[in-house]
Specification:
Elements lengths: L1 H38 L15 H6 L1 H15 L3 E6 L2 E6 L2 H8 L7 E3 L5 H5 L9 H11 L5 H26 L2 E2 L2 E2 L2 E2 L1 H17 L5 H18 L10 H28 L7 H18 L10 H32 L1 H14 L10 H6 L1 H13 L8 E3 L3 E4 L2 E3 L4 E4 L1 H4 L13 H4 L5 H4 L17 H18 E5 L8 E3 L3 E3 L4 E6 L8
Parallel strand pairs: 2-10
Antiparallel strand pairs: 1-2, 3-7, 4-5, 6-14, 7-10, 8-9, 11-14, 12-13
Helix pairs in contact: 7-8, 7-19, 8-12, 9-10, 10-11, 10-12, 12-15, 12-19, 13-15, 13-19, 15-19
Organism: Eragrostis curvula
Cofactor: heme
EC number: 1.14.19.41
């Protein structure tokens, strides 16, 4: 008996590798067949690497990866291309009208905005971008007071104080000389830290201590690394650290929400974004409590803290990208730089001792056109990933399968329709004769479209206008131009490859203090 059992076990050991090999081969065959079934008539790789697909190439060279998909979509004439990574089928959308079709159909039985292929794990459950329908509309209604003209006017002075303080630090850094030569330095990270302080101050104002700001910076750095890392949700991996960092950041912001609620209940005047938000919120919560009803949806400290993180994430890296590309474009186009300087000088001087007023910002029409051209020419978030909740007929001949990750490209839309779209030309948004902002409105998608269009786009453009106005007035600058310095890199929004390396020198006689 023992010998027969032993023999049986030996037989199993002998054939186990064959069974394993057969199982792996079966999985690979099924995977390839499933990929081709989903791919249908669309262009894409004839074979994919089992499970991993193109993820290694995507991580190593994201610019080359997305450019290749865009070229494939263009060459096919369908405006679509397919791929596969980490077990997920992918559809890339180049065509502007198809992009609008995705963005305007965000609902359970069509597409759901995900922000990141593994966004729910990374951002958590209380996240603005995952809402749709009436729930989404209700939350956008509650957010509306954050971006009224009155609120934006409050933010203008705050933004300028932070921007001026950081530009002064950049100049102090440039005062270090090496053999009589000023040292060039990359402004991407300094812009990023400036934007982080701006966002913190504008959004939660007096409610975040210096120690909390330092913790916030550390956790946000971890989050940024995790966004671009392989999504391994295990201890010790960057993705897990990012996920834990987001949870800590949301808790910190929830504490700021609680403080703002208390201050607004006490009759305080709004000093920051969360105050404008909480003014109506505390009134609705208190009215519900007086009537013996539960608090309205989306009014808890934890929920609003998570939504504030969404705002910070949207404002932080997108604005950093835009500021860097603005400096790059102004350096590359001296005529544009001269016109911006002249327009700003006509309404404001650093010697005035006052910040640029909201009324003066309105007068900077050409500078506003430059800002719009910056985000058209180099939209910070080039792709807007969605997942298909149900099969969706995207074209007459193709239905997107359920579970597909769809990547509409707002970057590709920016180079369709517009006259001489490859040229940086702010007059397309300034000239009354051209009015390309009207003629090609559907191609201007840096802030998205449909129900999830960016709620803070006026704030974002104001920030870019203010930065350019102050930067060109306070400093003379020159790019440290080298071959490939303006090639695109994804970190995670796009930025110049060299980090926007510049030489700076103070331009104004007296640095403003306000």
């Amino acid at each position: 008996m023992a010998e027969s059992v032993s023999g049986f076990l030996n037989d199993i050991r002998a054939v186990a590798p064959l069974f394993l090999a057969a199982a792996v081969a079966f999985y690979i065959v099924v995977e390839q067949l499933t990929y081709h079934r989903k791919k249908g008539p669309l262009p894409g790789a004839p074979l994919v690497v089992p499970f991993f697909g193109s993820v290694v190439r995507l991580i190593r060279d994201p610019t080359g990866y997305w450019d290749a998909l865009a070229a494939l979509a263009k060459e096919s004439g369908q405006g679509l291309a397919t791929d596969y990574f980490l077990g997920r089928f992918v559809v890339f959308v180049r065509d502007t009208e198809l992009t609008h079709r995705v963005l305007s159909n965000v609902r359970p039985d069509a597409f759901q905005f995900i922000g990141h292929p593994f966004g729910k794990k990374l951002f958590g459950e209380h996240n603005f971008i995952y809402l749709f329908g009436d729930e989404h509309k209700d939350l956008r209604r509650r957010m509306a007071p954050n971006f009224t003209p009155r609120a934006l006017s409050t933010y203008v002075a705050i933004q300028q104080r932070v921007i001026v303080a950081h530009i002064r630090r950049w100049l102090d850094r440039q005062s270090d000389v090496d053999g009589g030569e000023r040292r060039a330095f990359q402004i991407r990270d300094p812009c990023r830290y400036m934007n982080l302080e701006t966002s913190q101050t504008v959004f939660v104002g007096p409610y975040m201590t210096e120690e909390a700001r330092r913790r916030f910076e550390r956790d946000y750095d971890q989050f940024n690394v995790g966004v671009m890392a392989v999504p391994v949700d295990l201890p010790g991996f960057a993705f897990r650290r990012a996920k834990e960092g987001v949870a800590r950041l949301a808790r910190l912001l929830a504490g700021c929400v609680a403080q703002s609620k208390a201050r607004m209940r006490a009759g305080g005047e709004p000093e920051c974004l969360v105050d404008y938000w909480m003014q109506d919120t505390v009134r609705e919560v208190d009215e519900a409590a007086a009537d013996g009803l539960p608090p309205p949806a989306h009014t808890s400290d934890a929920e609003i803290g998570a939504y504030l993180f969404d705002f910070l994430y949207a404002a932080q890296d997108a604005s950093t990208s835009s500021l860097c590309w603005a400096v790059s474009a102004l350096d590359a186009h001296p005529d544009v730089l001269a016109r911006v300087r002249a327009e700003v000088a006509a309404v404001w001087s650093p010697d005035s001792g006052e910040p640029i007023s909201p009324e003066q910002v309105v007068e900077l029409r050409y500078t506003q056109a430059v800002a719009r051209e910056v985000v058209r020419y180099r939209p910070p978030a080039t792709l807007v990933p969605h997942i298909a909740g149900q099969p969706f007929q995207l074209t007459e001949g193709y239905t997107v399968p359920k579970g597909t990750i769809v990547f509409p490209s707002v970057y590709e839309s920016s180079f369709q329709g517009f006259q001489d779209a490859d040229a940086f030309d702010p007059d397309r948004f300034f000239s009354e004769a051209r009015r390309e902002d009207v003629a090609f409105k559907r191609n201007f998608l840096p802030f998205g479209a449909g129900p999830h269009q960016c709620v803070g786009q006026r704030y974002a453009l104001n920030h870019l206008v203010l930065f350019m106005a102050l930067f060109v007035s306070l400093v003379d600058f020159r790019r440290d131009t080298k071959k490939g310095c303006d090639d695109l890199v994804y970190i995670p929004t796009i930025a110049p490859k060299d980090g926007c390396t510049v030489y700076l020198k103070q331009r104004c006689a007296n640095f403003p203090s306000f």
